[in-house]
Design a protein that fits this description.
Elements (H helix, E strand, L loop, with lengths): L1 H4 L5 E8 L6 H11 L3 E8 L1 H10 L4 E4 L8 E8 L2 E6 L12 H4 L3 E5 L4 H12 L5 E6 L2 H9 L5 E4 L12 E3 L10 E7 L6 H20 L5
Parallel strand pairs: 1-2, 1-3, 6-7
Antiparallel strand pairs: 3-10, 4-10, 5-8, 5-9
Helix pairs in contact: 2-7
Bound molecules: 2-phosphoglycolic acid.
């Protein structure tokens, strides 16, 4: 509307978000800040467990993660898809197979995110549900470090497809065709129930709901 066009939405937008969103969130902020030049953004990255702590301290306007905490009273909005995929080095023998049974993945050395990570929770639940035990060879608290370790031949891992956003077509990593994958996950924006959302908070939430998916897909080179 006219007020938006004149850049009349002003103030600081404080976001707390899980590390895995660093692959698309700063990119989405580009067009958002263009549209609302009066809004300054501050972005804090942590893992799933860290978000619960920030929520507790009421340190941000909005919080972004992919597992909505069940033990906290929050309002949540599903905004963008977050598919989880099985990653291997490009020359791994499993890249030639189709519909690989999940039990086969459990036979390979695996690289796991740290405890406190939402991605780890999803992975652990999936293998528990199939009564499978992962052969965890290495635990790393960074998606980027996990990608490097996969290329280094240390094992396979399961990460958000967003971690491949800028890999392009010549890639050292391959997405395996595993039965039941990708796991359909979503990014959620949450805030404490009963909290009055600021104008800038509401503006960003509406923006993510309306444009988030489109911007994320349009500018990423997904495998
Ligand atoms: P994390 O985030 O693995 O970096 O904690 C992803 C999520 O919220 O599931």
């Amino acid at each position: 509307d006219i007020a938006d066009m004149k850049g009349m939405k002003q103030g600081q937008l404080k976001l707390s978000t899980v590390t895995t969103t660093k692959y698309f969130l700063p990119r989405i902020l580009g067009p958002f800040c263009d549209r609302y030049p009066g809004i300054d953004v501050s972005l804090k990255f942590t893992n799933h467990e860290g978000i619960q702590q920030y929520l507790h301290e009421n340190s941000s306007d909005l919080y972004i993660l992919s597992q909505v905490p069940e033990n906290l009273d929050v309002v949540s909005y599903k905004v963008i898809e977050n598919p989880l995929v099985v990653l291997a080095p490009y020359n791994h023998p499993l890249t030639k197979e189709r519909q690989i049974p999940i039990a086969r993945i459990a036979e390979e050395p695996f690289i796991m995110r740290e405890s406190g990570s939402g991605t780890r929770q999803v992975v652990q639940k999936l293998f528990d549900r199939h009564d499978l035990k992962l052969k965890v060879r290495l635990e790393l608290s960074s998606n980027e470090a996990i990608k490097q370790a996969i290329v280094g031949g240390l094992g396979l891992s399961i990460l958000s497809r967003h971690t491949l956003a800028l890999e392009g077509m010549t890639k050292p990593l391959a997405v395996l065709d595993v039965a039941g994958f990708p796991i359909q996950n979503y990014w959620y924006v949450i805030y404490p129930s009963g909290k009055q959302l600021s104008v800038v908070g509401r503006t960003f939430l509406n923006y993510l709901q309306q444009e988030g998916e489109q911007i994320t897909e349009a500018s990423a080179f997904f495998n």
